[in-house]
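Technical annex, item 7. During the second reporting period the consortium partners agreed on a shared format for inverse folding records so that results from different sites could be compared directly. Each record opens with the tokenized structure and is followed by the designed sequence. A conforming record, contributed by the partner at site C, is shown below for reference.
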């Protein structure tokens, strides 16, 4: 990948010019794929990560400064997207581990185990999008940001009882949506 003056192309790209995007994509795709392939934790994720890289390139094209080499800037963007991808996978793993480890302290073990099964199959995100905003924020803060229920109460400036209630109802809604999607089938020893 040559370090030419990419500024005009990136400016046009940030203004929605599809031709400029195609030009930048064609000039950088082999470089991007190679770097992603070597950095990604699972090689089969390289294509998905590449999509994330180009989405982020579209979002941040206007942040490129011509005084910096484009290749270095673009490599930084790629590395950040690979890290983000790894974090997403790690979060799902942590959800599963947290739910397994919290069995003794959980009052609603059945719901959390079902949530774990959902997370195991990478189906949490589409189901999460169907939740009402207040339920979604509780689940995201609890399982993606690793906040305690007490911390969530402080962040949202609501009583702890309200957080517990929303958490319980969010898990219940996720379970119901999962059951609707999978027709009550048995998964990981649990009947849904």
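Designed sequence (site C submission):
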């Amino acid at each position: 990948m040559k370090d030419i003056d990419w500024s005009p192309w990136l400016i046009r790209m940030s203004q929605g010019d599809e031709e400029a995007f195609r030009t930048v994509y064609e000039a950088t795709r082999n470089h991007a794929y190679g770097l992603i392939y070597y950095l990604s934790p699972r090689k089969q994720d390289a294509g998905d990560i590449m999509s994330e890289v180009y989405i982020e390139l579209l979002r941040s094209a206007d942040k490129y400064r011509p005084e910096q080499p484009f290749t270095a800037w673009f490599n930084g963007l790629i590395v950040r997207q690979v890290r983000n991808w790894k974090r997403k996978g790690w979060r799902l793993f942590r959800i599963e581990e947290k739910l397994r480890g919290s069995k003794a302290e959980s009052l609603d073990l059945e719901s959390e185990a079902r949530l774990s099964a959902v997370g195991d199959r990478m189906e949490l995100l589409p189901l999460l999008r169907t939740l009402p905003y207040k339920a979604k924020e509780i689940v995201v803060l609890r399982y993606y940001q690793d906040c305690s229920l007490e911390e969530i109460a402080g962040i949202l400036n609501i009583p702890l009882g309200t957080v517990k209630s929303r958490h319980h109802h969010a898990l219940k809604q996720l379970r119901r949506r999962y059951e609707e999607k999978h027709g009550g089938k048995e998964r990981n020893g649990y009947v849904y």
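The radius of gyration is 21 Å. The CA atoms of residues 27 and 187 lie 45 Å apart. All partners now use this format for quarterly exchanges.
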